[in-house]
Amino acid sequence: QPAAALPPASAASAPDKLQSSPRLMPLPRGDAARQLPIVLQAQKITTQPDLQTVAEGDVEFRRGGLVMQADRLSYDTPADLVRAQGHVKVTREGAVYSGPELEVSVQRFEGFFLRPEFEFFSLGAGGSAQKLEFLGNSRTRATQALYTSCPRPPESDGTAKEPAWVLRTDRVTIDLDANEGVAEGAVLRFLGTPILAMPTLSF
To answer: How far apart, in Å, are the Cα atoms of 52 and each of 17, 88, 108, 117?
Structure first.
């Protein structure tokens, strides 16, 4: 399986295989983040040095505590920008996101995820959205979102079952560093029945 270490690189030997975990160590920020190597694995990798790298088939992109997996992934070197399609999964700083399409600036962690499901392990909560925007290292904004701290067991056909308590929102902004969120156009539902509507809700 081809693997490539993209600049900057500081080790001559290939890294050991990492074990999957939703609770990876926090990603360094600032100058420390810029010095971390990028490691890319896939069934097929094509590259234009210092311009763009395209990986296809069982792709895994790693930089420090950030792990991205997808069917296809391209990395724009000058822009430090990842575009990923197909079974995309991102694991980063106690959170896991999965969905069909992602575009994100790696170091700044700004971009978007289309139709994702997400889990914030530090908050014991998660949900799904039509679109999730990454607003930097700790903030996200979800549009047309479902958000809950209740377990979400799948139905017998594998589809997600609505939890007992769920917050449906037009938009919800989460700050993981501050451990807080603000929901707009929120409707609190219990066992599928709306019981409380609020224009704005802080939690």
So the answer is: 24, 19, 18, 28
Cβ-based burial of 50 (10 A; exposed 0-12, middle 13-18, buried ≥19): exposed
pTM over 0.70: yes
Tens digit of pLDDT at every position of the chain (203 positions)? 666 666 553 333 444 444 544 444 454 555 566 578 999 999 999 999 889 999 999 999 999 989 999 999 999 999 999 999 999 999 998 899 999 999 999 999 999 999 999 999 878 889 999 999 999 988 999 999 999 988 766 656 666 667 888 999 999 999 988 888 899 999 999 988 999 999 999 88
